[in-house]
Amino acid sequence: MTASPTLGLSPTDRVMILAPHPDDEALGTGGLIQQALAAGASVRVVFVTDGDNNPWPQRHAERRLIIRPADRRRLGAQRRAEAVHALATLGLGGGDTFFLGFPDTALLPLWKKRDAAALAAFSRALADWPPTLLVTPSAHDRHPDHCGVFALAQAALGRNGQSPAQVSYLIHRPWFRRAPVLDVALPLTSAQRETKLRAILCHETQMKLSRRRFTSFAKPVEMFASVPPSAAGRA
């Protein structure tokens, strides 16, 4: 795929973004969402988990040591609402936002055991709204949910016989191996960068402990890695 400010998007394109957790959509693709909508493309964001298993920010915010199941459900509901707010800030309506509700931090194990429900959910999401551009987290992301989503998506594409163009975004750089080559550059205008920052700040539950790291993603250029068509079905 050739690097360009709009990734060559047109009004006939359908851009699907897979986000392991609420906040990944703004951090990784806040600029892309704006530019896709400006080009007249359709955009759909699919959140795989609610991000409810994130105990340290919750402990800090709620001043509690023990996090019970009800507390996690409350956090998940808050993070869903934050994601909807962030996407509205980026210009995307709630009808284009979907939550699969899989367990947070469990996606790589689900992939490793080839969980039938997870594979079916990914296959159904891709078949019901076939994208022309699929945007996934990186296979090289050190967070297991991120590389798990990549693998599940490739398996679902192979099962469906789909081969959309693909790019991936990197949120957590790998510790012990070389980071992937990010070869697709998406320059942002100052207004788009400011809007991306406002969308990131919508994720209030994450700001107490991660504000500096999160806001650092509002850079002048959003970077992606192109994903070869051969990846589908071979994760």
Descriptive overview:
The chain is α/β, with parallel strands linked by helices and 235 residues long. It has a single domain (14-231), classed as Rossmann fold, CATH 3.40.50.10320. The chain contains eight helices and seven strands; from the N terminus they run E-H-E-H-H-E-H-H-E-H-E-E-H-H-E. The longest helix has 22 residues, at 69-90. The chain is globular, with a radius of gyration of 17 Å. The protein starts with 13 loop residues before the first strand and ends in a 9-residue tail after the last strand.
How many β-strand runs?
7
CATH architecture: 3-Layer(aba) Sandwich
Mean pLDDT: 92
- Radius of gyration from CA coordinates: 17 Å
Would you summarize the structure shown here?
With 235 residues, the protein is α/β, with parallel strands linked by helices. The protein has 8 helices and 7 strands, in the order βαβααβααβαββααβ.
SSE blueprint:
Elements: E1 14-19, H1 24-38, E2 42-49, H2 55-62, H3 69-90, E3 97-102, H4 107-112, H5 116-128, E4 133-137, H6 144-160, E5 165-169, E6 184-187, H7 190-201, H8 207-215, E7 221-226
Parallel strand pairs: 1-2, 1-4, 2-3, 4-5
Antiparallel strand pairs: 5-7, 6-7
Helix pairs in contact: 1-3, 1-7, 3-7, 5-6
